[in-house]
């Protein structure tokens, strides 16, 4: 199952929550990740290096620790801050490598979603520790194997097979065979009584080993249109509705995602407005991304505009690019689009900078 990226309503701009479904103990401690995109082909994969925000994608593998790592039953979660998320683009599939326990590497597919941005330039602060950050050439190396803790030597058990000397001075006298025979009879009687006691005792089930216990599966909220309508009718807050819409979209329940995005966008969510705009935008519209039968650039521009006027750099970029395409009914589209691209570029939006005339 691919990893999931969301931004809860309580998170500040530029911060995202990543969840990886599956047993969390399969990952190393501390958790280490590497992000790469393969848009140019597998042999030309680029890896994210947030230390250099002006040139963040490189050929060398760069491992780093995420923030706020939490291991819950059935999932691993952590945060990515603005220094990382600023370099990720919506609707782009990335590969997220997570260092596995024992040095193996687990790969998860991460389709990035539009999140509430941050106007400040991206600055990444590496975690504390002498071993960080880590950078390697080519594929990720196997992780270090931690040495086992030394154990105290056990006291050896000595089994005596010959006759033991008796007496205080060890004179070698024969043992008292009569006393030994009486002891054997007594032990046999005790063993028989114990057998009788165990036969009459109410049996108890044997404890189940931890490894044999099945993992609890969290209850899944349905992603039906009826459920989406229910959330809208309940007046779900904008942030929660947007998060629910992302969950619906990842489940390919696009009709429900559309309803939730529109509900959240109408209540001021810039992220939902962008997500709704992508469903209308001719540049991103497809049967895999939108429930609408055809693109509508005018509607896409309207939703992008709302988020752009709220100061969202991603929306400014998308709005400007759409206006410059000449597909909207705005007669000043190209000129207005250029102005919006400049606003996005002024906020550090990399794609907007590239789109500006040289």
UniProtKB/TrEMBL annotation:
Q: Which residues cross the membrane?
A: none
Among SMART domains, the record links this protein to: SEL1
Q: Gene3D superfamilies in the record, alphabetically?
A: Tetratricopeptide repeat domain (1.25.40.10)
Locate the region Disordered. 121-174
The family database entries (InterPro entries) matched by this protein are listed as: ISR_Activator, Sel1-like, TPR-like_helical_dom_sf
Q: What protein name does the entry list?
A: Sel1 repeat family protein
Q: Which organism is it from?
A: Azospirillum baldaniorum
């Amino acid at each position: 199952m691919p990893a999931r990226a969301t931004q809860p309503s309580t998170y500040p701009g530029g911060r995202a929550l990543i969840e990886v479904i599956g047993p969390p103990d399969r990952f190393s401690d501390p958790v280490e990740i590497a992000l790469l995109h393969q848009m140019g082909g597998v042999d030309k994969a680029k890896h994210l290096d947030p230390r250099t925000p002006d040139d963040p994608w490189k050929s060398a593998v760069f491992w780093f620790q995420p923030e706020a790592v939490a291991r819950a039953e059935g999932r691993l979660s952590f945060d990515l801050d603005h220094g990382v998320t600023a370099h990720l683009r919506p609707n782009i599939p990335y590969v997220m490598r997570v260092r596995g326990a024992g040095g193996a590497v687990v790969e998860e597919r991460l389709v990035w979603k539009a999140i509430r941005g941050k106007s400040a330039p991206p600055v990444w602060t590496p975690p504390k520790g002498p071993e960080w950050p880590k950078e390697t050439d080519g594929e990720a190396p196997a992780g270090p194997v931690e040495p086992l803790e030394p154990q105290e030597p056990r006291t050896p058990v000595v089994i005596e097979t010959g006759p033991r000397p008796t007496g205080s001075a060890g004179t070698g006298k024969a043992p008292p065979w009569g006393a030994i025979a009486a002891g054997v009879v007594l032990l046999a009687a005790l063993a028989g009584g114990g057998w009788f006691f165990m036969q009459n005792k109410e049996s108890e089930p044997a404890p189940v080993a931890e490894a044999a216990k099945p993992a609890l599966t969290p209850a899944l909220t349905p992603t039906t249109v009826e459920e989406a309508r229910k959330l809208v009718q309940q007046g779900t807050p904008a942030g929660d509705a947007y998060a629910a819409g992302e969950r619906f979209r990842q489940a390919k329940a696009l009709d429900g995602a559309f309803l939730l995005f529109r509900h959240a966008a109408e209540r001021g969510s810039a992220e939902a407005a962008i997500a709704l705009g992508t469903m209308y935008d001719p540049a991103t519209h497809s049967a895999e991304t939108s429930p609408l039968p055809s693109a509508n650039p005018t509607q896409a521009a309207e939703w992008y505009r709302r988020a752009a006027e709220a100061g969202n750099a991603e929306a400014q970029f998308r709005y400007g690019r759409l206006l410059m395409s000449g597909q909207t009914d705005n007669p000043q589209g190209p000129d207005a689009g250029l102005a919006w691209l400049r606003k996005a570029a002024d906020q550090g939006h990399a794609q907007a900078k590239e789109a500006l005339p040289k």
